[in-house]
Write a structure and sequence with these properties.
Blueprint lengths: L4 E2 L9 E3 L23 H4 L5 H8 L4 E3 L2 H7 L7 E3 L1 H7 L4 E6 L10 H13 L4 E6 L3 H13 L2 E7 H6 L1 H9 L3 E5 L5 H9 L7 H13 L5 E3 L6 H7 L1 H12 L6 E5 L4 H16 L5 E7 L4 H4 L1 E5 L10 E5 L21 H8 L4 E5 L1 H15 L5 H20 L4 E6 L7 H8 L10 H10 L9
Parallel strand pairs: 5-15, 6-7, 6-9, 7-8, 10-11, 10-15, 11-14
Antiparallel strand pairs: 1-4, 2-3, 4-5, 12-13
Helix pairs in contact: 2-11, 3-5, 5-6, 5-11, 6-8, 9-10, 11-13, 12-13, 16-17
The structure holds pyridoxal-5'-phosphate (PLP).
The site of pyridoxal-5'-phosphate has 19 residues, from helix 13 and helix 17.
């Protein structure tokens, strides 16, 4: 009899997050002030984030304990299951062992609530009563509105116009928890009005929505703070609960991964699963192939420029050294909305740059092909974002079939696809187009990135 599920007792759940900063082989380039291009001071961030999160953003502590109130909420869905995908292995006829961590079991349906819970907790602790944010496909807006409702804060969400129009049920989901939504660009902010003046028919982008949400916080005089669902160090930190749990569960399965895979938009679910293994690779010399998977339509890590760039279109966020397609990049309308961001987490960029991890890009038709196979074998309809990780896990398993190796593959199932059935419809109707970014887009990125004189850390 096969053992499919490797569950962890709630009592054995890790009580801390893993901070990768002190373990990095070389320090990361410092974040810069958007206007002066000088290294950022913690006070520069105080207008939009609570101090506790700013401290985590820059912390050198290797482990940060999870507050009791956050643990209590985590326990509503954590520890999440680790499952061995025997049926997928059999369908692929591969000698590889395939495991996945199932983050789709959370109330929001994805990993994002691991950080929204923590972020709202720290905001509340500092007396904040309202939080503004952006959302692309809607997963982050959902995760933040749930966390805000649990802690009794107001949640204002700027939702990328195209998703606002195409995903009415995501809207209702966010509103069910009390979140207030505006389609972005909106007429409620200076940034939004400027984007609309430039192009009244714009579909919006994550970069524009971030500009609006940041503006609301900056202009509130401290009453409203801003919250980001990916990219920043403290967000990746909160997600490491995924990998810390997975390590214990893999041990109980008497397995250790040769390959660790996560899809990569801003980089948070990838980092969450991978960083505790990156630590083993850096500190214990473990031989692990750690792969971030992105869409060919938005190939930040595989084709982007390694440079300082803004996180938003209106150039209000700090400059971070990262891989970028340019802060004014509007990606093609692929169905993995969560992977359509022009930049990436600085930590993920840094590790890619130094070769500790690697990145691959995949087309959306093969992604859906693998997602349907996964759904039929494992019973779970994956989010199109998570489908990117599945595609690469399948590719690695097929390489094992060809070579006869029986590698152990671990990937992150970052979320389910119950709100993405229209993209499954498009796939089933044969209507999905595979995009490759043209060279012209990269040239425009080169023009858009700010000219920054590099300072040493
Ligand atoms: C948002 C999202 C992603 C992409 O964001 P990361 O920060 O790269 O993890 C991936 N999968 C799902 C299900 C998401 O909701």
């Amino acid at each position: 009899m096969h053992q499919y599920n490797f569950l962890l007792d709630a009592g054995k759940m890790p009580d801390h997050w893993y901070n990768i900063i002190p373990d990095l082989k070389t320090p990361m380039a410092p974040p810069l002030h958007p206007a002066t291009h000088k290294p950022l001071n913690p006070e520069d961030l105080a207008a939009i984030f609570p101090m506790a999160l700013i401290e985590q953003e820059m912390s050198n502590k290797p482990a940060i304990s999870i507050p009791g109130e956050v643990m209590d909420i985590y326990k509503l869905w954590r520890p999440t299951p680790l499952r061995r995908a025997y049926r997928l292995e059999k369908a692929l006829d591969t000698p590889a062992k395939i495991f996945y961590k199932n983050e789709s079991v959370s109330p929001s349906g994805s990993h994002k609530i691991n950080t929204s819970t923590a972020q709202v907790y720290y905001n509340k602790a500092e007396g904040i009563k309202e939080i503004s944010t952006e959302t692309g496909a809607g997963q982050w807006g959902t995760a933040l509105s749930i966390a805000c409702s649990m802690f009794g804060l107001k949640c204002t969400v700027y939702m990328v116009r195209v998703s606002y129009d195409q995903k009415p049920y995501r809207r209702s989901f966010i509103q069910t928890y009390g979140g207030v939504i505006y389609p972005s660009p909106s007429t409620t902010t200076d940034a939004g009005r400027a984007f609309l003046a430039e192009d009244p028919n714009t579909t919006g982008s994550l970069g524009m929505a971030i500009s609006e949400a940041v503006e609301v916080a900056v202009k509130s005089g401290g009453a409203i703070k801003y919250s980001l669902g990916s990219v920043l160090n403290h967000v990746l930190l909160h997600q490491t609960i995924i990998g810390l749990e997975a390590k214990q569960q893999m041990e109980s399965a008497e397995a250790y991964p040769d390959v660790v895979i996560g899809c990569c938009g801003g980089g948070s679910n990838f980092a969450g699963l991978a960083f505790p293994y990156v630590q083993d690779k850096m500190k214990k010399g473990k031989d692990i192939d750690i792969i971030a998977v992105e869409p060919t339509a938005c190939p930040t890590l595989t084709r982007g420029l390694y440079a300082y760039d803004y996180g938003d279109t209106a150039m209000m966020t700090p400059l971070l050294k990262q891989y970028t397609l340019g802060h004014n990049f509007v990606p093609p309308g692929i169905h993995a909305g969560g992977l359509r961001y022009h930049g990436v987490a600085q930590q993920v960029a840094h590790l890619t740059r130094e070769g500790t991890i690697r990145a691959v890009a995949v087309h959306q038709n093969p992604v859906f092909e693998a997602s349907l196979l996964f759904a039929k074998c494992e019973g779970i309809v994956p989010a199109p974002e998570a489908g990117h990780a599945i595609r690469t896990a399948v590719d690695e398993a097929l390489k094992c079939k060809a070579s006869g190796e029986s590698k152990t593959i671990l990937f992150n199932l970052s979320g389910h696809g119950h709100f993405d059935m229209s993209s499954y419809d498009s796939y089933l109707a044969g209507k999905l187009v595979d995009f490759d970014l043209d060279e012209e887009a990269l040239r425009r990125a080169e023009e858009a990135i700010p000219k920054v004189e590099e300072v040493s850390a």
